[in-house]
Amino acid sequence: MLVSKMCLSLLISLSVLTQTSEGPPDSKRTQSLVDKLRKESQNSLSVRWSEVTQTPELIEGNLTKPSRHSPEWITYEYFERIKILYDLKNVKEDLRILSVVPNLNGTRLYLQRLLYGKPVCGEQFVVEIDSRGVLQRIEGALHTGLEMKRLRRPMYAAVTLEEAKRAALAYDSSLKGSAVLRMDSCYLPDRTGVPLVHRITFEKENRTVAVTVHSMTGQVIK
User: Fold this and answer.
1) pLDDT tens per residue across span 100-113
2) What angle in degrees, to the nearest 10, is found between the helix axes of 71-82 and 28-40?
3) Which of 176, 175, 197, 177 lies closest to 186 in space, CA to CA?
4) pTM of the predicted protein model
5) HSE-CB of 76 using CA atoms within 13 angstroms
6) CA-CA distance, 55 to 142, in Å (whole number)?
7) Is 46 within 8 Å of 34 (Cβ atoms)?
8) What's the rounded Cα separation, in Å, for the pair 220 and 212?
């Protein structure tokens, strides 16, 4: 009896570990897609799920068949197939290819996630395609439901980038005299309401310092 209970406990523990490391969230549609993708990859598919976003943070394996199509075409085509895993609606509108970098092993692509035409802070993909045109790796996780959290409305900035820069300097006077490396705007995916913010990045004493300013209120977000 004791042995049976121990075996049952071990099986439950293994089940929990499997769901955490490999298993998708509790969705029949998601599970069905992952099973289909694994079969098509000849069981080479490996998925690691983000505990924060509940979307894949790493997909590896022989994800596609060899192809002579461009790396961009291969990437968009695969994301079109797996978009429900990331809650994407229109792949070519939601993902922008930032750069395509050939290397000795094939090609690496960098993609930026967009919301209402603006970048989403910190949400990018790195995609690797080998020399045969086989997609091998997708790294990056996305927050889901951003449109709903924005009540399906984009946010329009009331504060300009220059005003945000002045707010950043007023907040941290030690940055005065520092070079501004870049000023850009993006949606904060993990903030209530998913606000549009301005990010001012300075170079201070050979290191970068970024200050985030709310695009409506002009307040610095810590």
Assistant:
1) 999 999 999 999 99
2) 140
3) 197
4) 0.86
5) 13
6) 6
7) no
8) 6
